[in-house]
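Trying the structure run again after the queue cleared.
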Amino acid sequence: MFVSAALTFLLGATSAFAKPPARTRRVCGTVTTDEQIATMEKDFAAKKVEVGNFTTQATLNIYWHVVSQDTTLSGGNIPDSQISAQMNVMNQAYASMGYSWVLAGTTRTINADWFNNAGPNSSQQTAMKNALRQGGVADLNVYSVGFTSGSGQGLLGYSTFPSSYASNPKDDGVVMLYSSVPGGTAAPYNEGQTLTHEAGHWVGLYHTFQGGCGGSGDYVTDTPPEKSAAYGCPTGRDTCSGGGADPIHNFMDYTDDSCMNQFTAGQASRAHSQMATYRGVS
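Done. Tokens:
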């Protein structure tokens, strides 16, 4: 269950060693109101840096922070091999967008409170990010945790948006479920697309179903309108009249990892403009 909460207005204790809750549906916490989106889009329109040709790959750093409750894999201490596999998934997913990712560093921290209770707007996530964040505005910090209690309970991940960096640099980044990496136990969300999705918010993209069938939707013209999130892999689903079938294979929907395989050219254009405007990356 994805949660993207970046912005202070966006959206982790049963016992400290509680069994993680079952995750049967993807849910993302980038839950922004129409008013909040209007504010963000007004700011973007005023500051927008247009990016023309972005065929040259831009390389972005990832600093990975493994936060676990103990030294075991079931306690969140994912091995370097799974992080490497996740990096491969990211590079495959973002190649068409013109971004490549490199692992700039990995930290490992045993903190059961952070592991279980870090979630959107929680004191645990604030302490965790303040202690661990590395790099600058164009560096993605990823925190893998357990999401067993509190505001993050049952989530797959959440992220900040580019426009929120200036007001709260330490908050910038993605918090994600440790078992959603390739080979993890969070099936059907264990092929690495949780980070792909959350990083999509980090580069400036909304959900494909943002705004439903009306209005400006996700502010991308080549993603068909979609009334609500899609789950599983419902081939042929079409919830809005006109515009074509729902974009169930898009990384910014809620379908199973195995169903996701694409960003559109319009999403790439928006991401590059967002990144140039707010992160100084063309």
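The first helix runs from residue 34 to 47. Worth checking whether this holds up in the mutant runs.
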